[in-house]
Amino acid sequence: MAPERLVCLALLLLCSAACSRDLSNLNPPYPRIGNCYGAALSWRPWDQGAEYWSKLDLFIGGGYDLHYDWDNPRWDKALTTMQANITRLREANPTALVLPYVDVIEGVENPATPAHWWDLNAQGERWSGWPGMYRINMKLPEVLQYNLDMVRDRVLGREMFDGVFYDCWSPDDWLCPRTAQLRDGTAVVMLNAWNLPTKGFADLNGVLSEDELNRVIAGTVDFDDFMQRYLRWCRDSRKPVVTMIVCHPEGVDDDPWRWSKMSREERQQLSEKMRHEEQTMRFGLTATLMGDGYFGYDMGTAGRGNWWWYKEYDAPLGQPKGDCRRNADGTYQREFDGGTVIVNGSAYDAVVRLPGKRQDMSTGRVGTDFMIPMYDGRLFLPTDAPETGTSDVAPRITVAPPTQLRLAHLPHDVTVVQTPPGLELRFDATGALQKILWRGETIMNGGFPIVAAPPFRQFSVQSTTADTPDPAPGGPAKLRYGGSLVHEAQRADFVETVTVQPDGRFTLRFDCTAVTDLDIRLWRHYFFFPTRLYAGAKAEAEGKTITLPETLGGDQLLPATKQFVLTGKDTTITIDSTLPLGLIDHRKWGTEEYLLAGYPVGISAAVKAGTQWSVEMTVTVAPAK
Questions:
Q1: pTM of whole model > 0.90?
Q2: Could you state, in chain order, the average pLDDT of each consecutive group of 10 residues for the chain (625 residues)?
Q3: Residue 430 sits in the same domain as residue 562
Q4: Spatial separation of the C-alpha atoms in residues 524 and 449, rounded to whole Å
Q5: Which 8-state DSSP code applies to residue 12?
Q6: d(CA 391, CA 358)
Q7: Contact 425, 210 (CB under 8 A)
Q8: For residue 588, what is the DSSP state?
Q9: Residue 621: in which H helix or E strand, if any?
Q10: What is the domain range of residue 239?
Q11: Which of 122, 206, 352, 503 shows a CA-CA span of 20 to 30 A to 495?
């Protein structure tokens, strides 16, 4: 056992002789590793899980998971096993926190659930947002009261539990504050709102950032904005801090409906393959270490809670010497008693120089100069070993614009087009635009359609082809992608043609055919504009000019138009589209963005097989005048 943990054990044992378990000053050493939903404290005896459990600092569910089935007799047996394991856990790792899982909005098939509690769709039927679950009507006051009563009596009434974890719930004005008052205000309260929310600090000890870093990599979440929200949760929430970042390997398709149809053997094979994709693990771990939260790495929402362990988790960092800092190149850095941690959440590879000799814990390289790829991170430990004789690998891509149109290829089949004025586009293997950057900063994202069947089950992109030839000198870059959008037996084919001009213009054209009849909840072509960049900017459409609001008021901002102009601090963005695009404030739906969107086949529409349609959008980016 590490010396830091022995000190924590001694302090907690002294405290326990005179008082109940006091968690207000809990401060385990770093890194802090947790498990979401899969620790299995109630399903395995201590000797089968002791080695892994003893190293964990946070247990979220994974043994006492409730989906409106509190009356299930299996919990009596589970509680007995959990009591025995948690007693041993407190001896092995007294700083570990155990938070049972309570699903707020979904329940399993259970005759004990009152019939009027189920949420009904437009046809008056129960509906499911997750395999094997049905939605609960959370507008009913008695449902909220039921959750509070059960948590008070069945979770927080048991001393072995440190608090509760509410899944699928956002900070609210009723359930969260009342739960926070339980146990005389000492209960640890954590929830999962998917993205890190911007409120709730007074009632919550933390929140789960569920795969939000994967959305940073995909280009739909800004890393600096993410870090600001994460660090605020570490700073302003109730203590002890239990905010957790969890992410999954790139390439995992974590659609739960597809995952539910896989056999156990297929899941295990895929899991074993994906556990060796360690770059995203390093990115998530080092981002977490910029604050005081916990980290987990697993197969994503469809297979959360893998018992994966990496050498970086054993880094003897101890305690931080202070807060993290943001460097000029976009990296974040934090000094610990046992080393230096740097995370690179920028869209470019970074070269860092340390003041003294260090060893990269991941690669083993020893020196003072290191290259950290985009969306990666490193733990640098002091060492007396001799320096590595060769230089680190060179950066693959930097922020400096080329003198002529340039096409480059990055890992994971990402194609990059850079223009001399500073516009840069990044496409994945399907043709989806991951990032739209201007002189190194993500200015918008979107471009590729989002397609979903009711209630909101996204179509996947399959059978794709890509043709990305190098541009002729002085000419445009022309890329072509093809494939199918598929959900169960439904299928639509698409051809995407991309033309990027050297002057900072690009055109996206989509030619689509419904191969089968389609039941469409949503077919959206869109662009998102982050509020941190464009609040207060001028937006124009149909002869109307508005100032984009600093805070959410009404969500409808501008009518649908075929030409939209947005003038921010650094850029003017003009979008000409064959499809009318309307502007709304997407903060109403929980993300800090303005949404410009159009719907070529409507919303909640039936589309006949053989139907064809095309959408073309030209985007011009220029310096603001």
A1: no
A2: 42 37 89 96 94 97 88 86 95 96 94 94 89 93 97 95 96 97 96 94 98 90 94 97 96 79 86 93 98 96 91 98 96 98 96 95 96 97 94 90 92 92 95 93 94 91 94 93 96 98 96 98 96 95 95 91 96 98 92 94 93 98 92
A3: yes
A4: 5
A5: H
A6: 14
A7: no
A8: G
A9: strand 612-623
A10: 32-309
A11: 503
